[in-house]
Predict the 3D structure of the following.
Amino acid sequence: MALVTTERMFKQALESDYAVGAFNVNNMEIIQGIVEAAMEEKAPLILQVSAGARKYAKPAYLIKLVEAAIEDTGLDIALHLDHGEDFDICKKCVDDGFTSVMIDGSKHPFEENIRLTKEVVDYAHSKGVSVEAELGKLAGIEDNINVDARNATFTDPEEAAEFVEKTGVDSLAVAIGTSHGAYKFKGEPYLDFDRLKAIHQLIPDTPLVLHGASTVLPEFVAKCNEYGGDIPGAQGVPEDMIKTAARYGVCKVNIDTDLRLAMTAEIRKYLCEHPADFDPRKYLGPARDAIRGMVQHKIKNVLNASGKA
């Protein structure tokens, strides 16, 4: 039981066509729900921290909560920086004990993305830490990442191969049609699997990452709206598409929106049904249980990662 890098996790996933869930964390209840599900399913696990989470909860608190989760469950967990914007934040997270960092240079021109990623790779690898990078842009909003759909660009397979060779990055986030947030598609869901296959064929030993991969489960959207929410028309990535992606090199699937919806749906329900209650434990407990059930469903039925730890 320890904080571990993603190297062994991804190697096994790549060989066996399943994906490891990477779940964004913001507080104790979210962490507890996720790790309890992973423990029950004996599944590999990545807990990841975004810019918003760092600002909200502070890294010191989140790191200690993850360490407590490891002590409590006996799981090996990778602690990952999600969407690191520059070298300095990646270096700080490496120095603070993160075992994996993402440098997101996708907003930069190709050569600058290579230069920045290589700088992070050189430092992180010297400390035994794994590095993820991103090539191509996803539409949608995630914390301070906001890319208009009109400017979103898919990952070019040839550029992906060149990028990996020049940077030495451990895993690569690719843009094939997913997006951040609860509104991923305006019409029929579409992922460019031909593009994903081409990327995987050119860099078959490189684990690929799917950002914006929440399925936006309809039952949680409906429950949110039933108890006072206002999120009509929310739509995520169909679960079958996630399963297909895992057959073509996708080893890490990022999930955040589904956690937020599960938690919020249960809190709304409880507060509506118990208007006199004001003890946070009364509504955060059911919210934690909802996260555990949702994550367990993902591990068993979408990621096919049960019993893989």
